[in-house]
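Notes from the 1:1 (GR / supervisor)

We went over the backlog. Supervisor wanted to see one worked example end to end before approving the batch request, so GR pasted a single chain during the call. The sequence is below; no edits were made to it. Supervisor asked that the structure be written out right there so they could see what the output format looks like.
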Amino acid sequence: MSHLNVVAALPLIIVAAAGVLAMGTGLFDSQRVRRYAPTGVAVAGIVAAFVAIVVLWGDREEAFGGSLRTDRFSLLLSAIFLAAALLVIALGWHESAAVDRRGEFAGLIMVAVAGMMLVASAGDLITLFLGIETLSMSLYVLCALEVWRERSLESGLKYLITGAVGSAVLLYGLALLFGATGALDFATIGQQLELTGLTADPLVIAAMALIVVGLAFKASAAPFHMWTPDVYEGAPTTVTAFMSTATKAAALAAFLRIFQGVLPELAADWQAAIAAIAVASIVIGNIAALVQTNMKRLLAYSSVAHAGYLLIGVAAGGIRGAEAVAYYLIAYLAMTMTAFAVVIIREREVENGEQLEALAGYGRARPVLGIAMTLAMLSLAGFPPLAGFVGKFLLFGSAVEAGMTWLALVGAAGSVVSLGYYLRVLGVLWLGGREDAQPARMLAVPGPVLAATATAALSIILLALLATPLIDISRGAAEALLAP
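Structure output shown during the call:
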């Protein structure tokens, strides 16, 4: 039993069990049970998993013979995944996909979170790949959950096909790495590569290149982002919000686990490749977003750009880089969820509510939601003193400290370019439409949706006000990641 150490894996077990149970309750004949039980089970599982994370917070523990590592890094990332799941379940309270298929919606969200927690806690290559595939397969189904809508089915099919290619590339890279080192666990792989170096063996170079490509695909990083705008646009908006935040956090957790957790001494060999992808993502994401008129596509390209900002921290390496990534993932969750929450509310009110023109004058008609969207856009752009500014300051600072000032300058330039579309959204929101006109058809916002929106929006401010303790927590997670 000590070899298994089930207690160390308790958050993961709770989430996986809640996912299975939520799907099971969706099969009952009673419409009332199908409507409320899956959500109740999922929320209870999230709360229980949060409690388990607090209890386990501390030194590293291993479970299942070292296949899982429970440390402050994996626990912090798990908390981010759970927060994203809780917000998405609340935002989906009246969404058609979530209402008609509540068991599948809540259950698959929880299964996807379990996969993400596997990635963040992975101690070997097999666990890492199983986690990525678990979250990917859940998202394939979630994207196509609105089976009566052609765009949703198209989104699921596109993500399935392109996701299979990305997974195959990643698996090929992991297999080559195993062949080159003869080991599956990260500790042994790190020891082997420290002796030989990354550039000494062509097999290792090929393995690392394929792993970078596979993980960049999952993170929506350019030039492997081709699936992102179409899938984000076609999927149910609640699923898009979940993919944009939690999935990106899982992909960045994998980047940190492999490159900073296993190969910190060989940073000179992989920094350039990660930095190149970061630059491509920042440039392509920000420029492409300038011409978008659909909010989901605009936020999709914004997501590509933010993948680039996050990869700056990965490329910088060290405790400062990992600390900056961890903090920014928390801030990015609050910012992006707030923006998608407003889009979700507007979609319920008017046809084509995801179009930018549907927000014309919306800030005047609904000042509270207008303020929430304003906070999200300004924070995503990096305006002080909001959480996005603090996060970008940490990311760019880690690059400067690592001697990569040029990369920080690229990130700062990308943030300036992003003002073109973030401020355009605010112009339409507050100044669009006739002065005496109100946006057509406004419905009452359900309590859970309003609570989730308000929580995410307030978090943008609170994360900046409480930046010091959160940075301390992020630094502790980074130290746990880099600990031998």
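Supervisor's comment: DSSP finds 20 helices and two strands in the chain.
Batch request approved.
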